[in-house]
Each structure stands twice: as C-alpha cells, then as structure tokens.
Amino acid sequence: MSADLDLSDPSPLTEEPSSITERDADLLFRQARTVRSFTDQPVTQAELQAAWDLAKWGPTAMNTGPLRVLVVATPAARERLAAHMNDGNKQRVLDAPVSLVLAADPRFHTTLPVLAPHASERAAELESAPQVRAAMARTNALLQSGYLIVALRAVGLGVGPMSGMDAAGIDADLLAEDGWSSLMVLNVGHVAGDGDAFPRAARLDWAQATRTL
Ligand SMILES: Cc1cc2nc3c(=O)[nH]c(=O)nc-3n(C[C@H](O)[C@H](O)[C@H](O)COP(=O)(O)O)c2cc1C
In angstroms, what is the span from residue 116 Cα to ligand 1's centroid? Predict the structure, then answer.
C-alpha cells in the first residue's frame, strides 16, 4: 500500500473519470428501494438477460459462479411459488410481474473446466466433498445475488428481495430436478409510484462499520 495513502479520508482514491455518475449512484444505491408495488408492464426476457449479462461479471471464488435462477413467470407458477412463501410475502409474489428464485448449485464444480481452467483439477476433489461444495456454492451464490439485485436496478427494474419462505419446500417442489438450493426470491418489475417502499431506514456509516488496522 502506498505510504502517502491517507486512511482517514474515505473519499475516492482516484479522480479517474471511470467512476459512475451521481445519477447512476442514485439509481443503483441512494434512490433505489426495496420495491413492493409494480406496474402492469411486463418484464421481458431481454430485460432479465441484460441484467444477468451485467451481474455475471461480478467476482466469485475461483470464478465458480454457482448462482442459478428459476424464472417464475406464469400465474400458475406464481401460485405454486406463493404457497411456499411466508404469509406476508405470498401476495407480493402473486402481484409481481415476475419472480426470480435465486439458488445455489452445489454441482457448480462440473463447470470448473470452463470457468476456471487454471483450477480444473479441483473438480475431482470437490466431487467427493459435498459439504465443502455446498458451503462454497451458498457463499458465492449469495454474493452473486447482491450483484444481480444491483444489475436489475441498472437496467431500470425495481426489485423486492425476500427470504421469508420455506426454502426446503421450494427446493423439493420447484428445484428438485436441478438439485439447486434456494436462497431468496426477488420480485421484479417496473416500479409503480414510490414502489410501496417502507420508510427508508438508517444505515451504518463508514466510521460505525469499519476499523482500520
Ligand atoms: C436477503 C433479503 C431478504 C429479505 N426478506 C424479506 C422478506 O422476507 N419480506 C420482506 O417484506 N422484505 C424482505 N427483505 C427486504 C428488506 O427488509 C429491505 O431490503 C431492507 O429493509 C432495506 O429496505 P430499502 O431497500 O427500502 O432501504 C429482504 C431483503 C433481503 C436483501
């Protein structure tokens, strides 16, 4: 680390013009809210794919990329998913234009030869270490879930994440054929008005959340 780096100053380390604009920072973070009300405008496959094509570049350990997504689009599929959500979340799934079940793939190691050719020999080791795989899949898929929330906002969509659900029920009913483990559900759509967002709660600031050694 550079000796003249002032660690007491939380301002950006560089003035390079490659940083995002204030407008983009508002869109992605400061003005972005957890959305609970959407317009009737459908969400297209192209919009979801555009978000994925951003989120997929976010880093994961060894480039494992274990996040998988079940797109729950039809009314019948939404009814099926809603049955596994906590009471307060059921109607939100039924009302959303589309819901995404974000899941971790514990068999992500089969993609290592493509995603991590530098570490492809790990695939054989991981095959016989299912608990290690499950933990790696969960950690890295949760990380990618955060990237996907921000990416969906980046393409102009509103997002309502929810983990109040019977994850085992979702896995058995909706994900058994894939062997994926559900992590959360994202309701996704075009935001109606203020999105029925709850009052904005405080966040910890830099000084409260950090310690510098
Ligand atoms: C992983 C995760 C799980 C959540 N689960 C629920 C949930 O089950 N039900 C709900 O109403 N909101 C849920 N939320 C929404 C959070 O309460 C909300 O994002 C947080 O309070 C920040 O709100 P804001 O984005 O409007 O500032 C969840 C959010 C995340 C990221």
Answer: 33
Residue nearest to atom 4 of ligand 1 (CA): 162
Closest residue by Cα to atom 19, ligand 1, is 34
Q: CB of 85 closer than 6 A to ligand 1?
A: no
Residues 6+ positions from 28 with CB-CB distance below 8 Å: 20, 150, 153, 154
Name the nearest CA neighbour of 42 among 13, 75, 15, 87. Answer: 75
CATH classification of the domain holding 143: 3.40.109.10
Tell me how many domains the chain contains: 1
Encode pLDDT of 87-96 as tens digits. 999 999 999 9
Question: pLDDT digit string (tens) for 47-96?
Answer: 999 999 999 999 999 999 999 999 999 999 999 999 999 999 999 999 99
pTM beyond cutoff 0.85? yes
Determine which helix (DSSP H) or strand (DSSP E) holds 102, and give its type and residue range: strand 98-104
Domain around 96: 49-183
Q: Domain for residue 71, yes or no?
A: yes
